[in-house]
Amino acid sequence: MKIVVGLSGGVDSSVAAYLLQKQGHDVVALFMRNWNDASVTLEDECPWIEDSNDALMVAQKLGIPFQVIDMSELYKEKIVDYMFAEYEKGRTPNPDVLCNREVKFDVFMKTALSLGAEKVATGHYARVSSDFDENGTEIFHLLAGKDNNKDQSYFLCQLNQDQLSKALFPIGELTKPEVREIAREMGLVTADKKDSQGLCFIGKVSLPTFLQQQLKPKEGEIVEIFSNFDGFHADKPQFSTKLEELQFLSRKIKYRKSDGKVIGKHQGAHYFTIGQSKGLGIGGHKESCFIISRDMETNTIYVGEGRGFPGLFQTALKIDTPEIHWVREDLRLENGESMKVKARIRYRQTLEDATLYQFEEGLYIEFENPQSAVAEGQFAAWYLEDELIGSGVIS
After folding, report:
1. Of 94, 199, 204, 247, which has the fewest Cβ atoms less than 10 A away?
2. How many CB atoms sit inside 10 A of residue 321's CB?
């Protein structure tokens, strides 16, 4: 089978290419150049050049064809511009999820298939399996990677059945130490290369510096809310319907400056996110202060002291109807239906027991335990056992 591997210059995709070659497939390596502005990296380097060189050396070592494709314009349009727009609205985007949906498994996949490939492989720690339903339709399952510490199924949460039908994740059954050991045994230059900590395919990017490229600084106030705030202690009202209860539980508390005390200044609410504590420059507290809310109209940041601060927690969240995505369309809920699932609201978060409720106005996720730092714009993903079946943007 002819398979195109997205060779990123890291150890994971390197081993993915080797494993496919070992299985006897006709493997072709494609490197995606998605960013070419070194002015916003943390170090004086062009990360894509270094990664491209590493990918080339791996391809040469394995004896497979290697090609670089420039997708920087598409990446800027689909990912970078989206990021700027979301932060400006006071939301927290996840560029890695969008990169997989819009770039790797869309345009990149189409490019690979146009080269005669039957499948596209990446170095994600995830798995794909399939079976047939009673009508003979093949159903593809997106499964968590076997390495619980590296499972990346969350980043693939927006893929659809067609994309999964053409996707391969060769290292999904392996742990990271096993992947590195295979790379060392093969003498691959990427064997001990550190994992990328930057934005998807951009490199070692300082996010505040990156945002400042387009979002101008705008001084505003930091207001501390205290744990005795009335809104945290009001009696829970009586609800006549489950929808009313979910609307209440998923609501965003609207703070005012008069509810707390001004304790500092910031350079722009659009540079921060819910749950953030670093970069605020706040002193004089026993515990760190965490952002609990941002008012974009007044450019005010509201904070509370300590990880257990009540304003950080919610038991439910909402996903607007247009933002609901089912990987398993056959499991899609109809209005009025519910489903018990496991769910997470960020990468590497432990899966939490939750219930989905579908209504005409959107999908609600109610968690058994309150969730910390629920941020608008992030993706919530839900699972049945180890299968990711759907996701959506938190509203």
Report:
1. 204
2. 15
Q: How many helices (H) and strands (E) does the chain have?
A: 10, 18
| Residue 99 known to be catalytic | yes
User: Does 147 share its domain with 237?
Assistant: no
Single residue among 287, 312, 337 that ends a domain in this structure: 312
200 catalytic? Reply is: yes
pLDDT digits (tens, 9 = 90+) for 299-355: 999 999 999 999 999 999 999 999 999 999 999 999 999 999 999 999 999 999 999
The per-residue pLDDT for range 142-173, each reduced to its tens digit, is 999 999 999 999 999 999 999 999 999 999 99
Strands (E), 184-305: 220-224, 261-266, 289-295, 300-305
Say whether both 17 and 166 belong to one domain: yes
Does residue 200 register a pLDDT over 60? no
Average pLDDT over residues 76-90: 88
C-beta separation of 222 from 303 below 8 A: yes
Question: Are residues 51 and 190 located together in one domain of the fold?
Answer: yes
- Which residue type, as a one-letter code, is found at position 23? Q
The verdict on 297 and 350 lying in the same domain is no
pLDDT in tens, 351-366: 999 999 999 999 999 9
CA distance 19 to 342: 32
Which domain range does residue 107 map to?
A: 2-212
